[in-house]
Amino acid sequence: MSRNDEVATRLEEFADLLEATGVEYKPTAYRRAAENVRDHPAPIEGLAAGGEDAVAEIDRVGDAIAAKIVEYVETGEIGELTELREELPVDMAGLTAVEGVGPNTVGSLYDALGISDLDELETAAEAEEIREVSGFGAKTEENILDNIPFAREARERTRLGDARPVADDALAYLADRDAVESVEVCGSIRRWKPTIGDIDLLVASEERDPIVEAFTHWEAADATIEAGTGKASVRADGTRVDLRIVDPDEFGAALQYFTGSRAHNVAVRNRAIDRGRKLNEYGLFDVSDAEGEAADDDAEGEAADGAAADGAEADATRAGERIAGESEDEVYRALDMDPVSPELREDRGEVEAAAEGRLPPLVGPDELRGDLHTHTDWSDGGFSIAEMAAAAEERGYDYHVVTDHATGPGMVGGVGLDESDIEAQAAAVAEAADEVDIPLLHGIEANIDAGGDLSTDDETLAALDLVVASPHAALGQDAEAATERLVRAVEHPHVDVLGHPTGRLINERPGLDPDVEAVAEAASASGTAIEVNANPARLDADGEFVRAAVEAGATIAVNTDAHAPRELDNARYGVHTARRGWARAADVLNARSLDGLRSFLL
Length: 602
Ligand code: DGT
Ligand code: CA
Ligand code: CA
Ligand code: ZN
What we know:
Elements: H1 3-20, H2 26-39, H3 44-49, H4 52-55, H5 63-75, H6 79-87, H7 92-96, H8 103-113, H9 118-126, H10 138-156, E1 158-159, H11 160-175, E2 182-186, H12 187-190, E3 195-196, E4 199-204, H13 209-216, E5 221-227, E6 231-236, E7 239-246, H14 251-259, H15 262-274, E8 277-280, E9 283-286, H16 291-299, H17 302-305, H18 311-314, E10 321-324, H19 328-334, H20 350-355, E11 370-371, H21 385-394, E12 399-405, H22 419-433, E13 440-448, H23 458-462, E14 466-471, H24 479-491, E15 497-498, H25 516-526, E16 529-533, H26 543-551, E17 556-559, H27 571-580, H28 594-601
Parallel strand pairs: 4-7, 11-12, 12-13, 13-14, 14-15, 15-16, 16-17
Antiparallel strand pairs: 1-3, 2-4, 5-6, 6-7, 8-9, 9-10
Helix pairs in contact: 1-2, 1-6, 1-8, 9-10, 14-19, 24-25, 25-26, 26-27
Bound molecules: 2'-deoxyguanosine-5'-triphosphate, calcium ion (CA) (2 copies) and zinc ion (ZN).
């Protein structure tokens, strides 16, 4: 977490606590300030060193907030915040993770019932105590109860976008240690799952203790959970990070084993067994000679049962003739199959496909040639058209598409562009195009209303180069209505890309739950691309949706939905999500040249 993030988080906590104690307006001011501090390009500690006036140069940061920021940077705390925390000792983040529970609700429930965390909230809701509190009713109480499990899981799992930078930092740090021969992430983070339980790291080295020592002294390690021989765990940025150290000649086998998923590993291990081999974290071994021995063991009967209860673990030895283990590819190849990309390892047919040599060549992180969904300061982005275009050019893109929000359902505070704004923006895009050396396309992000219609008129849409249409409101509708809505939207003659189809926000709200096959079929038939929104809070469509789209022959678009230049870097999360859905470059609209893109848009 950068210092800017840290300060912003404190300001947001302050805003929540103010709101919970019934203060009006001020919370909004603090949240706006927090957002601008987080996005500010200069490190906050540098500005704070220049005093309150320097800090107040940040947009939306007034003198009072600037004073608190300076106080925090200098002393490590904000006096008023500390007081508020004592006044209202609640797990604000945990409680507000429940959909429908805001800081206001937290304040009321603490005052009335003394509720301070999720468990107490659940107990009170089950005892039907909440409905008795003024301002609450039976329906609200039921909603709270329904939404607690989602919130609880959200509290346990970290978003990929929060964990991946921590893992990258650990990788770079460990790669720099002399004793480290190789280092890789494994587990769910290597499979690019949208949320991860913990970060797993694997090091190949002849040494153990110096690496454990270095790991526990990693700058980001806030606490050591465990430090043993050849393994250690620390907490970094609120997430557990597990490190294992193995001998270099066993690195590939260990990487395969600890990448998982468990279901994939079972399928691969069974393939090994079928071939008279044994696969475990130490390597792939030929045990065909040992068959008689194994039978003898079985014959020994009851006594051995306890120890051998988990067959897979019972065989976790180095016995047998070693066939492979140094590299992962070699392990897969020795099992007569192609190596399987980590994103595919979910036991969804990848083992059979690899055995038959029909795994698709997955789209690569460097194959994107432009972004089809980006925002500017014409709507809720923070940067001009020219600034965003320049950032796209700098990334090496061949083209760039501007798609600000159109006005409509879900757009609050006058953020969206109406028809005349869109016309005016066309001229501005043409002008900005002179400032960069890549072509700029003018598009819009239109809103799909609850019934599947768009809120921008057809004539305006027809004049644009590209139309992204996304749901932003009515995200709680039932599956059937959601399916009809999205099918109708993809069938709209002017819609080119279905943006973040479910509207989910990972760990915050589940979003729509459409029949993905039906939407994929409709998208394929009508020549509309389905977006993988690469914003790590979204990753929407997810891997399963992408898989359905690819199987239906629909086109995918991997877009960042960037509101700032640095958010273009989120593209990698989108690419790996598309890979989880078995997408090839040929399936991805913005992996095509400008000509290829244009012919799709015709
Ligand atoms: P997560 O952390 O909950 O997002 O999911 P993973 O997949 O990272 O799971 P984790 O961290 O518990 O373990 C990493 C991988 O290591 C897992 O995918 C499979 C493998 N693994 C770990 N422990 C065991 C075990 O006791 N038995 C088996 N078969 N596999 C294991
Ligand atoms: Ca893990
Ligand atoms: Ca783990
Ligand atoms: Zn959107």
